[in-house]
Amino acid sequence: MTGDPEPLAPLNPSETALLLVEYQNEFTTEGGKLHDAVKDVMKETNMLENSVSLTKACRDAGVKIMHLPIGFGKGHPEISSNPYGILAGVKEGEAFAEGEWGSAICDAMKPEEGDITVKGKGGLCGFKSTNLDFMLRQNDVKNIVLGGFLTNCCVESTMRTAYENGYKVYTLKDCCAATSMEGQNAAFEHTFGMFSIPTTSEEIKKAVTA
């Protein structure tokens, strides 16, 4: 990732949501079924530590904190019996099984009182199978700040729909992780700028406290 981010205009905390995509043990924590795939990028971007720091700063500023985990029933009946692509790996590996340790939000990012946990995400886009849009509008949110996993999968899918739904979208270069730095950099350098304002956790902290 090259170049410094542009300074952001102030963001009204009461109109802003920090949307945290899949900070679950399968990704974040040693022993998680997908942790080995993302741990190098997590280390390179320092994304978990940055996310913890940003979440606290946003919560203190009055930003709405929204957690967006993914989960599946036993045997993953929500996914086709003949899946392909990324969902094939999720089903074959029995990842994100509801009620199990792997699907739990990691200790460092546990929801706190006043946070919202969005339920029903069983696919890639955070809007598709949930009432996320309803909850955002009920809370008068106009600005969405996005971090999480995977940069070029669920974060990107959610970003694109948020953009099309009329929100102002900010994506966090240092609070996301893909399965390679090549994929991470390609997303931010070539795609994310079409559907969001790529930025960093430090710039968002400044914007919500300006």
UniProtKB/TrEMBL annotation:
Q: Does the keyword Hydrolase apply?
A: yes
Q: Superkingdom, according to UniProt? A: Eukaryota
Ranges where the Isochorismatase-like domain occurs: 16-203
Write down the Pfam families for this protein, in alphabetical order. Answer: Isochorismatase
Q: GO MF annotations for this entry?
A: hydrolase activity
Keywords, comma-separated and alphabetical: Hydrolase
Kindly give the CDD domains that the UniProt entry links to this protein: cysteine_hydrolases
> Which parts of the chain are coiled coil?
none
Q: Which family does it belong to?
A: Belongs to the isochorismatase family.
PANTHER family in the record: ISOCHORISMATASE-LIKE DOMAIN-CONTAINING PROTEIN, PEROXYUREIDOACRYLATE/UREIDOACRYLATE AMIDOHYDROLASE-RELATED
What's the name of the protein?
Isochorismatase-like domain-containing protein
> Which organism is this protein's natural source?
Corethron hystrix
